[in-house]
Amino acid sequence: MTQKTEIRAEICLPTTNLTADIGFFTKVLGMQMDRIYPADDPKVASFRGHGLAVQLDADAAQSAGRLQFATDVQAFADGQTQLVSPGGTQVSVVPLNPPLILPETNHSFVVRRLADQAPWVIGRAGMHYRDLIPDRLGGSIIASHIRIPDGGPVPDMVHYHKVGFQLIFCYRGWVDVVYEDQGGPIRLTAGDCFIQPPEIRHRVLEASDGIEVIEIGVPAEHVTEIDHEMTLPTAVVNREREWDGQRFVHNVAEGATWVDARLPGFIARDTTIAANTKDVAGVQVIRRGQGDPVWAAHDADIHFTFVMQGEFVLEGDGQAPHTLVPGDAFVIPPGMRTRYSAPSDDLELLEVALRGDFRTQL
Questions:
Q1: 280/181 Cα distance (integer angstroms)
Q2: What local confidence, expressed as pLDDT, does residue 321 receive?
Q3: Which residues pair with 142 in a beta bridge?
Q4: Distance between CA atoms of 199 and 214, rounded to whole angstroms?
Q5: For the segment 207-259, what is each residue's pLDDT rounded down to a tens digit?
Q6: CA nearest 45: which of 155, 133, 123, 131?
Q7: Separation of alpha carbons 81 and 73, rounded Å
Q8: How far, in Å, CA of 90 to CA of 83, rounded?
Q9: Kind plus residue range of the DSSP H or E element containing 286
């Protein structure tokens, strides 16, 4: 018997106000939202209902309607990918499950200050996003400072992200999240972090007043899919399960072991993320230690740091020194020599590196 080819068709329409259209399509038309992206500043949303699937695109420039069929491209419409009907309707045929594309990193030295008043943008589920890497290193990574001003239940749905790597680090407050195959709700408190493996289903349940997290996603633009079928928590608990070679991590700050950091003059606690992603990424928290800071370089593809507490002066070859304080962030390209000078005794940094097995040259 020939296996039936799965086909997903959507009507694609332009929109000049995606935020308002989400309410219109769900509340007025009674459709359900299936996906939305990117999370920090949504431009595209898909809806389904009444035998109809619609995709709204805030960046769409076309005036005519367009149909999109997602399927096995070679098995549909004689392999054609762009067609036009006699009446002028545009038809696109795209892969149903396209491979995740990780753009090549566009290396640059980036300093992002909280005092610069970067805009907070309302994103998915009413969360406020602040972009910590404006150029996103050519699309290879997104780093977001996310806050929910008012605590309480979060209007979230079971969903997953098509990513290569994703970190959620709790900066302030607490948040309750439930994950596929990980048992009941888990509370993430300040200093704790999750790694969300690719496509693990999850839902944000409730948050404290003033909750703030740092979210890292690779690549910068990735799709969030809503799963209307799965109910969380799942009946199965399998904490050894892997998603695309990565395990779920819930790392707790309280009681952590501190050791000498890769940089002299500092100490660090490891979050076990390097081990659980097979060195896709490494995440550490860095504090002031004994001794004087030194000049050093690294060979990671991406090296991102967020200042959580205290202050210091970031010096770099060919760069003016930058005095950094809580809420500031920076990216150091591979091979660039830097020094973390004049660190305060209460300095605490969140350091994220891709790869997890990167090396430091002193």
A1: 22
A2: 97
A3: 217
A4: 19
A5: 999 999 999 999 999 989 999 999 999 999 999 999 999 999 999 999 999 99
A6: 123
A7: 7
A8: 6
A9: strand 282-288
